[in-house]
Amino acid sequence: xxxxxxxxxxxxxxxxxxxxxxxxxxxxxxxxxxxxxxxxxxxxxxxxxxxxxxxxxxxxxxxxxxxxxxxxxxxxxxxxxxxxxxxxxxxxxxxxxxxxxxxxxxxxxxxxxxxxxxxxxxxxxxxxxxxxxxxxxxxxxxxxxx
Length: 146
Description:
- By secondary structure, the protein is mostly helical.
- 71% of the residues lie in helices and 0% in strands.
- The chain has two domains: 2-66; 73-135, no CATH class.
- The chain contains five helices and no strands.
């Protein structure tokens, strides 16, 4: 019974995400990115969101799920929301790179990644810095630390 309720809830989330994608496509993007060039990438993102939500809905409706989700996964969304909320709050204060470093490190440790794999974070952030600052000439938010 609990498994049917979980699938029903996931179907509702899929329908909600499809509604969000439609809202983005027809209202939000034309309002805030009226040019054809400015609205291309957001429309691609909204299209991907719609198609993936539709696929998720049909997989839940007609497919068979072989694995059972452990109960420990139920508390992960709360931690994810909390860590991302702290990231957004600290973004303007201490800067993108420092807050992203703490966010990625916290999430990786919480999800059980080995400590030696945390060395990927500075390499990833260096890549992001090079792509945005030098490649695209877009300055990410800087705080008092960096």
